[in-house]
Amino acid sequence: MGKFIIEGQRSLGGKVRINGAKNSVLKLMVAALLGQGTFSLENVPQITDVNTMIGVLRALGVQVQFQAPRMQLSVSSVQGSTPQELVKAMRASIQVMGPLLARLGHVEVAKPGGCAIGRRPLDIHLSGFQQMGASIESEGDVFVARAPRLHGADISFRYPSVGATENIMMAATLAKGRTVIRNAAREPEIVDIQDFLNQMGARIKGAGTPVITIEGVHELGCTDFTVIPDRIEAGTYLLAFLITGGSGTLENVIPEHIGPLLDLVQGMGAHLEVQERAVEILSPAKLRPFSLSTNPYPGFPTDLQPQMVAVATQAHGQSELVEAVFDKRFGYTAELKKLGAHIDSKEQAVVVHGPTHLKANTLLAGDLRGGAALVLAALAAGGSTTIEGVDHIDRGYESMETRLLRLGASVKRIAN
Ligand code: UD1
Questions:
Q1: Global pTM?
Q2: pLDDT > 60? residue 22
Q3: To the nearest whole percent, how much of the chain has pLDDT over 90?
Q4: What is the 3-state secondary structure (H, E, C) of 25-65?
Q5: Most CB within 10 Å of its CB: which of 26, 253, 291, 414?
Q6: Which ranges of 175-318 does DSSP label H, i.e. alpha helix?
Q7: Cα gap 74→57, rounded to integer Å
Q8: Four-way CATH pick for 3-19+229-414: 3.50.50.60, 3.40.50.720, 3.65.10.10, 3.90.1570.30
Q9: How far is CA 389 from CA 91, 124, 163, 385, 394, in A?
């Protein structure tokens, strides 16, 4: 596991180009399992979750060539099973269930293990497949799902789960008849997957709204596609400028996708220049405190909640953050407290008392976005902070240390 050594209290400045979205590309790769032919993906980030997904696809017979930011996937016959250790390493592997069930009529997937950000059940995915005619058995450590041919169904989700929306949407492309998903998740990544599948020959409409309709077809082909920019990476760098009192520009970003964040930082006193594909931020002398609650899109993203807590330590006053998507997503605050942060924790909320002169310490990243929050806090802290467990950060941020260095931070990676 590598470490970052960060000398804090340097204002960041300059331009950072945002990479393709992790949460889109992982699903596009899986969606290719439904098709036939050679796919070319552009704007693919060099992150370890992408490498894990390459392992999953290769085990299923897909040929993959990857030299970031371009990936080529050649899909002919799909066979084999999903390696259990890869599913356990990355929950997004569960997304192979929909495509494999639709294409092969059966699938065995290891149950994803527990997770640092709380319980993550799969009932919405499984009940959707059952409504489409699948039988699902739980055999020890694996789910075994079977359906000679899935049929369309009118499915109402009890919660707009991102993963379930994508899984059912993918399975429905090859099902017999029409599937309607109600109370579907509306994230931009879901629109990206709809566009990708439609270019492969699927008939989907409604992504980005709560009702998605899929007319099943007999087969799907292949396509070339450019992944949308990563709104969470964009938000993280925007907050890196803000927490260090810096100014800079995000390039290759879709401002609409980070609307709630832009509103929030403006409310904190930042000045923004928003263009079609870029956002420039000028930090204020003094940050105002704020309140937020995470919510499914278009609400404030849970994947930016930890980074906002780090920023709240520098705001003048009391900020309150409610976590309404996951049930245990404040584990990283124990590490922020080691830097001197004043954080009161309740069950699903924290109150942060700022501003605090954070002081360097040795911290351990326990999950991806919590790890990003530790990096932000270290950028603001006095002295030299060590962050261990950087492999969590590498899952979703391409070369974070190099990119922060270019913006004027002092960050070193130590491999051990
Ligand atoms: C995706 C994102 C993740 C993000 C999350 C919410 C990927 C790879 N990951 O995760 O970064 O934080 O969306 O925006 O795209 N739930 C159930 N039953 C289910 C499914 C989900 O109760 O069958 C619950 C979960 O436990 C969680 C909530 O619904 O509390 C949200 O989960 P979901 O939207 O499914 O997130 P993921 O797709 O896992």
A1: 0.97
A2: yes
A3: 88
A4: HHHHHHHHHHCCEEEEEECCCCCHHHHHHHHHHHHCCCEEE
A5: 253
A6: 188-199, 231-243, 259-267, 305-312
A7: 10
A8: 3.65.10.10
A9: 19, 32, 26, 13, 9
The span from the CA of 84 to the CA of 195, in Å, is 30
User: What per-residue confidence (pLDDT) applies to 143?
Assistant: 87
* Residue 164 CB–ligand 1 contact under 6 Å: yes
d(CA 167, ligand 1 centre) in Å? 12
Where does CATH 3.65.10.10 sit in the chain? 3-19+229-414, 22-226
Summarize pLDDT for 146-205 with one digit per residue, the tens.
998 899 999 999 999 999 999 999 999 999 999 999 999 999 999 999 999 999 999 999
What DSSP designation does 112 have? P
Name the residue of 97, 126, 159, 368 whose CB sits within 8 Å of the most ligand 1 atoms, as the mutation to test its pocket: 159
Ligand 1 center to residue 159 CA distance, Å? 10
- Closest ligand 1 atom number to CA of residue 369: 11
Catalytic residue among 115, 159, 256, 275: 115
Question: For residue range 270-285, what is the model confidence (pLDDT) as tens digits?
Answer: 999 999 999 999 999 9
159 Cβ below 6 A of ligand 1:
yes
Tell me whether residue 115 is one of the annotated catalytic residues.
yes
According to CATH, what is the number of the domain 22-226?
Answer: 3.65.10.10
pLDDT tens per residue, range 361-382: 999 999 999 999 999 999 999 9
What would the pLDDT profile of 123-155 be if each residue is shown by its tens digit?
Answer: 999 999 999 999 999 888 888 999 988 999 999
3-class secondary structure, 332: coil
> What is the position in ligand 1's atom list of the atom closest to the CA of 127?
23
In this structure, the residue with its CA closest to atom 9 of ligand 1 is 23
Query: If you take atom 17 of ligand 1, which residue's CA is the nearest one?
Result: 121
Can you give the pLDDT at residue 121? 85
CB-ligand 1 contact for 303 (6 Å cutoff): yes
